[in-house]
Amino acid sequence: MRARYRLSLFCSVEMLRGYLFLLVGISVLLLVSAEKSPVEVYLQGIVGRSVHMRCVLDDPRGIERVYFQTKDSNESVVFVNGFYDKRELHARPEYKNRTIVNRSQISMELLNLTPDDEGDYECIPWTINAEEKNKTKFHLTVTANYSVPNITVQGCGIYPGAHNCVITCSSSGGFPKSNVTWNVARGNMRSLLREEGELVLKQDKYLKVWNVSQFVGLNCSRLLNISCSVGGVVSQAVSVCLPVHVIDITTVACAVLLLVSFVIVIIVVIKRRTTHRIPSEDGAIDAELASLKSGWMNTAKHTLSENLN
Q1: Cα separation of 269 and 226, whole Å?
Q2: Please, are residues 110 and 98 in contact by the beta-carbon 8 Å criterion?
Q3: Which three-class secondary structure state does DSSP give residue 232?
Q4: Best CA proximity match to 199, nearest among 188, 215, 221, 220
Q5: Strand 99-102 and strand 224-230: pairing?
Q6: Which is nearest to 219 in space by CA: 191, 243, 180, 188?
Q7: Residue 179: its pLDDT value, please?
């Protein structure tokens, strides 16, 4: 019994030692892994502006050299910029004039961003004793805001049921690629579509930004307020398919009758004035003729009397 007890106790002690050794081993591995795993930083930049990459270090003192690097399309390591007390570092031409390294902050600023700058970067620091410190990995996303979309309208007449209504939405200067989203107030755009053109994408050769446009044909059955958006930027709404203003026949008839009555009244008034004026003018003429005749007769009599005498 004693032998069995001693054996059991010995096994328990050995198992406990094994567990403790395993626990210590796992702790050491975790510490080593934590020291070697890079710190990850997510950055977002805008085309034409700059982004600041700062190495994350517990103690930045004693850093002798720092390399900022990335990878090209072939997964080859590309040196971007950095510093080293013992030698001069040469950056690639595409980065030389667009990077500023700050030794005191252990950082680098990348200027005049383009869509090609999007990707992963690393900061690799070493101490004076050539001891490599924790790396910092930067995930850089580059964007550019699209311009406010412009809507052009062609053939959307005022007549109901028009089948030639074409609307185009266009925007420029954005990154990455984006679709055109159509919106109609108080309605379903899909039910109004007669035709939907393909999305047209054109990329600027130098800036690498995108110009986007698309047209749609609509069934003009009622008044529509249409807007579009590209890359989250919304256009102003435009009104199309304006309804025909139906004119009330009764109102038109009343207006015409009133006009005719007014014309008749004017004609009657003019005729009355003309009728009253003619006798007056004839009487004046007759009186004038009678006066002239009387004067002529008196003159003739006077002349004859003088001749007789």
Answers
A1: 58
A2: yes
A3: coil
A4: 215
A5: unpaired
A6: 191
A7: 96
What's the confidence (pLDDT) of residue 252?
53
Q: How many CB atoms lie within 10 A of CB 291?
A: 10
Query: In angstroms, rounded to a whole number, what is the distance separating the alpha carbons of residues 63 and 132?
Result: 9
Q: What is the pTM of this model?
A: 0.62
CA distance 142 to 122: 17
Per the document, the length of the chain is 309
Q: How far is CA 37 from each of CA 31, 106, 137, 251, 283, rounded to the nearest angstrom? A: 10, 19, 10, 86, 128
Beta strands in the chain (DSSP E): 39-46, 51-54, 63-71, 77-84, 99-102, 107-110, 119-127, 136-143, 150-154, 162-174, 180-184, 193-196, 200-203, 210-220, 224-230, 233-234, 238-240
Task: Name which of 192, 187, 153 is nearest 169 in CA terms.
Answer: 153
Residue that is written with structure tokens 């807007």 in the block: 227
> How far, rounded to the nearest angstrom, does the alpha carbon of residue 212 sit from its chain's CA centroid?
11
- CB neighbourhood size of 18 (10 A): 10
Contact indicator for 199, 212 with CB cutoff of 8 Å: yes
- Residues 155-196 have pLDDT tens digits of 886 665 556 789 999 999 999 999 999 999 888 888 888 899
Of the two residues 174 and 277, the one the predictor is more confident about is 174
Candidates 111, 105, 121, 103; CA nearest to 41 is 121
Query: Cα separation of 241 and 218, whole Å?
Result: 9
